[in-house]
Fold this protein.
Amino acid sequence: MLNQFSRTQLLLGQEGMEKLYRARVAVFGIGGVGGYTVEALARSGVGTLDLIDDDKVCLTNLNRQIFATRKTVGQYKVDVAQQRILEINPKAVVHTYKTFYAPQTAELFDFSQYDYVVDAIDTVTGKLELVEQAEKAGVPIISSMGAGNKLDPTAFEVADIYETSVCPLARVMRKELKKRGIEKLKVVYSKEPPMTPLDDMSISCRTNCICPPGTARKCTQRRQVPGSNAFVPSVVGLIIAGEVVKDLTGAGGTT
């Protein structure tokens, strides 16, 4: 029967679509990368999505985040994402958590209930904790490496963390994961050397913070506010979504 996922079913088949419908995917971080991942997973027919992010939409998010519009500024990202997902697929089940994921909040999540975990958060400590929890639960995870301060969306590729190079974040992750005895991690990364953003305080969030009221973690607390654009984080998010769909359905020879 013709439905909103019919074009996808032409590629994945009915069995593949049923696997997606039964799947529960957790996306940690609903920003420039994670937002596009969520969008693509919802449009692919993933039945249950868990969205984890404590941030609110800021005016400076409009240049790259799919859920950011003038209308949504000041709203929680997970709430905006949930509303959009249900407008795309009313049958989807969406769980939202206004939580900053870190070792201190890891106990709030039961990873054994997930079929896949997406790491689209910024902090190394959070990323490491996500990988460790997924490893313990035996749940597949894919992690986004550095997408800020880059201009070439065609340079991103999928690889194991131990096969990466150039990316500073990947270098730190390799070192720390090795200490923890974790032998593999699927990541999306780029060999493009990161640019140094302009040191222009007239347009810097560090001195002109416009975070919505109630924002827990303001840009004024960051050592450096990275430059960003509309076309790099989105590509990373879509690559991640593609890997999740292929792995869940077994399409393209992946498992």
Q: What stands out?
A: The first strand starts at residue 24 and ends at 28. The chain has a mean pLDDT of 93.
